[in-house]
């Protein structure tokens, strides 16, 4: 009997040794504890209560990082109860942000995903301003991005990208072709 267990143990050990080694998975908790962003070098997941609601697939991640190795670090300080942000790009020059749409009881029903790149190099800084604004600075430019301003349930942008203190948000037309789309929360 002990010989059989030993053979099974050796066999199981051989299988584990033969399995490919995958990149480290990083779990990034968010300000709303029901949300988590999971990252590996192959994919990024947005999860709600343990269920995946959005995945950035390997091909997309490869494009976002220009063929370089994607980062698995957590983006500390870019999460509130209303928004979550991820800085991507091998130059750290792209932002993916998720705005949370909630019903009257506060339960998330949809996520508005924003993809934005200022095309002016790496972010010098990117900070959360309150619960619903992100301010990013890059070179001599700065942009303010606001979530759900005036209950429009969309991302809005400052009108000018030319000063270090960006204007208030006033347009849904993001500079440099920002895009956004809705993701249902089951």
Description:
By secondary structure, the protein is mainly beta. It has one domain (about 20-185). About 15% of the residues lie in helices and about 40% in strands. The protein has 2 helices and 13 strands. It has helices at about 1-20, 60-65, and strands at about 25-30, 35-40, 45-50, 50-55, 85-90, 95-100, 110-115, 125-130, 135-140, 140-145, 155-160, 170, 180-185. The strands form 3 sheets. Strands 8-9-10-11-12 form a 5-stranded antiparallel beta sheet, with no helix packed on it. A 4-stranded antiparallel beta sheet has the order 1-2-3-4. Strands 5-6-7-13 form a 4-stranded antiparallel beta sheet, with no helix packed on it. The radius of gyration is 20 Å and the shape is globular. The model is unreliable at about 1-20 (pLDDT under 50).
